[in-house]
Amino acid sequence: MVVKFNNAMNADEVSALWTRTVAEAAASQSGATLTLDASDCATLGGAASALAVELRRIANERGLKLELRDPHGSLDTVFRVFPAEKFAKIETGLSGRSHSLAAQVGESTMRIWRDFVEQLAFLGEMVSGFLRLMFHPGRLRWRETLVCFERAGIDALPITLLIGFLIGLILAFMSAASLRQFGVEVYVADLIAIGLFRELGPIITSIILAGRSGSAFAAEIGTMKVNEELDALVTFGIRPAMFLAMPRVVAATLVMPVLTIFAVTAGLVGGAMVLVSMQVPPVTYLNHVTDSITLPNVLFGLGKSAVFGTLVGMVGCSHGLQTGRTADAVGRAATAAVVGSLVLITVFDGAFAVVAYFAGV
Amino acid sequence: MERKTVIEVNHVDAGYDHPVLRDVDFKVFQGEVFVVLGGSGCGKSTMLKHMIGLNPPLAGTVRLIGDNIWSGDPAERTRALRHFGVSYQSGALFGSMTLLENVLLPLECFTSLPPSARRLLALMRLEQVGLREYAGFYPADISGGMKKRAAIARALALEPEILFLDEPSAGLDPVTSAGLDRLLLELRDRHGMTMVMVTHELPSIFAVADRCVMLDRAAQGMIAQGKPAELRDYPPNDTVRRFFNRQAEGDKS
């Protein structure tokens, strides 16, 4: 078998030659002669060099007799720089990271454990930070907190109002369709008011906060970690969790009840539009709403939303602080912040429902 | 024998909104290592971005092997882009890919070679820069010097005629830096590759540069051009003299 190399072989020509000759060489009997002819070739290009190395590797592996026609020394140069033995195995197992199942399971377990410990440490640090702040509120970076408040709150107002309005509208339409059969569509006002204040208002707003601000907290802090800004804080003796996370968590906690009030108000306006279009007098709607909004309901809803705000802030910041040092790690941290926030919001909402049931709120 | 011109920078005004450098004009010949040097903030990297097609110059043209990289003709621009590879200052390796996958990426996008051929070729490129054994490592797992070498391997993947290097020695220890210089000279000698290097590292300049051009912020343009040793020994002006003698502004000679 003779493989002839030309001076100006392009990648397509090498590709065709590779497919043909490599298969043929691999199928050759031991002792057969494989001739690499580079007599017309002063230098070999990259792809042709790779073909020569691969054929030599196959020749060594299958016991073929290799004959070189190499008057210009081009093949010799390639084999000197790229000895075929070095490329005997080109499997994927070259990584510095383990690929076996057991090793991956072990690494994942250790990672989960480390994450858990870090989350716990972060939680402890935040709780102690909150306690200290209660006695020394001046220690909080209020300027940073107000900036976070603005970004998480005021900037989120349009989307919160829109979604709150639409939810009120949809809720009114859905419930009115059923209650109308019994001639009691006026009670839709009670349903919307209680539903929005106790459940939907805090949930919708916290989902918006998690999507907008939780991910942003993680990405901001994660990028700072990639840029070694967190290292700079540590070497100053400043704790990043307190310096960066506390203003964000406080801002998220304070902004949530405010946003919830706006979302609920927009929802009530949406519901009013539907009921008024169904000939329910606006005054009747207003009376039903004010009668059903009791102080415990309002406090329960706003308290819940403040807790959800704390959760979103803490999850976002903790994922930011635990980011790896690569760009994709920042993306993963932002995703994890949103997913983690949504899971915790749902779990805590369930817990609140149980507590409210037994407390009779 | 007249040497072939591979890069022509013709009367370029460099900058983003307003020119920081005016009327930059030079040629780079085949097989030479050409260094663009100058102090921090003088516009070296801006100039490089004009040369590799990232940002259009405010005036003038850049031709790579005859093709205008800022041509309105997309085919000509594509041809120009194929002539070169770039090794960025930070390496710019894709963090979610192994070194092998980083080098494989251009081969997968722009060649019709079978997968086994691409893989072997990528490993050969890594072997050239001494990183074959690290093929499966992720960029986060290797040192800064290794990242720079891996970036060179990726830039070499498609066998470009020209290699642009942005601050290849920045942040490296002297031994690693000298190793990188040797690698560049090997690539030039073995493949006849033309290299354009943006740097202000004097040891690297003297180790590898055949010719250089010096840019200056205050003069808003080129202030010297020639062989590094000539510029050091016979500086045409005070700025060049201070640069090659590592003198701060106001120091007496």
The N- and C-terminal alpha carbons of chain A lie at a distance of: 89 Å
Give the helix tally of chain B.
9
Strand composition percent of chain A: under 5%
Please give the count of helices of chain A.
12
Our count of domains of chain B comes out at 2
Quote the average pLDDT of chain B.
88
- Cα shape of chain A: elongated
Order of helices and strands of chain A: EHEHEHHHHHHHHHH
Low-confidence stretches of chain B: none
CATH level-1 class of the largest domain in chain B: Alpha Beta
Radius of gyration of chain B: 18 Å
What can be said about the biggest beta sheet of chain A?
Answer: 3 strands, parallel
Query: Residue-averaged pLDDT of chain A, rounded?
Result: 88
Shape verdict of chain B: globular
Instruction: Bin the helical content of chain A.
Output: over 70%
Q: Largest interface, with Cβ-Cβ < 8 Å?
A: A-B, 33 and 30 residues
Q: How many domains comprise the coordinates of chain A?
A: 2
Based on secondary structure, the structural category of chain B is alpha/beta
- From the alpha carbons, calculate the radius of gyration of chain A and give it in angstroms: 34 Å
